[in-house]
Amino acid sequence: MRSVFGLVLLLGMGLAGFAVYMVQGFVSEQETALAQERARAAQSVPTSKIYAPTRTILYGEPITVDDVALIDYAIKHIPEGAFATFEELFPEGEDTPRVVLRQMEKDEPVLAIKVTEPGQGAGITSRLDRGMRAFTIKVDVASGVSGFLRPTDTVDVYWSGSVRGEGQHSFTQLIKSNVEIIAIDQSANGERNEASIARTVTVQVSPQDVAVLAQAQSTGALSLSLVGDNDDTVTGEILVNQRSLLGLAEPVVAQVEEVQQREVCTIITNKGGERVEVPIPCTN
Q: What does the alpha-carbon distance between residue 202 and residue 217 come to, in Å, rounded to a whole number?
């Protein structure tokens, strides 16, 4: 009986050992397959390291060395303006940080368009392109698109007024299209999501356009029209007066020709006792 019990015990131990061996082999095969799959995935999608925030960084905050780290990013999807080296992100050293112009989330690539140049603040001057100038337009709830404008938006600028000539003519005309907004009131923060009634809108334009907008603002009323984010159409000349608005025909003006009477010069002579007028060329 004891021999039978010992045989059963040995058989059970053998089966248990075989089961453990089979489980270990299965787990090993799965780990090998997973490692091979990871290797194939790494080979099929080449990556490169770029800098990304380690936390959410808000508008106006400086970027320090502790705020960023290198992450792996698919090479073919690396966005323009990403920073791949410490020297690119901090060219003047870590003591001269950049400032965030648009909020960035954790592990989102740091892009040049979202930060200032080293040492610059997050003010209006950091948003001005080379050769461009800032010009402020006074707006209200109607001309300011009900407060839905925000920095980085683009707008068309319309002028409404009247011109004195033969009578007084009132009209509205598009004077500048696709103008970029760089500030609302005294804020250049592009992360404004709520609608608020602005009193001023600051845009960036060329020096020549500054003169155009200044003259337009002093002689009439300026209105802004919001342009869509992906709208790249070219707007032609737009001018609307009261008659074209109401579909009225232009008045017909009678054309009066002034007939200038030709001056005739004569001299009087006596022929056989008769007075005769003889035409001659007129002289001054």
A: 13
Alpha helices in the chain, H assignment, sequence order: 2-44, 86-89, 207-219, 242-246
pLDDT in tens, 61-83: 899 999 999 999 999 899 999 99
Query: The tokens of 162 are what?
Result: 């009247």
Nearest residue to 158 via CA among 109, 217, 117, 204 = 217
DSSP secondary structure, 102-150, as one string: S-B-TTPPPBGGGBPPTT--SSGGGGPPTT-EEEEEE--TTTTGGGT--
Assessment of whether the complete model's pTM goes beyond 0.85: no
Which CATH number among 3.90.1210.10, 3.30.1380.10, 3.40.980.10, 3.40.50.300 corresponds to the domain 48-122? 3.90.1210.10
- The H-or-E segment that residue 234 falls in is none
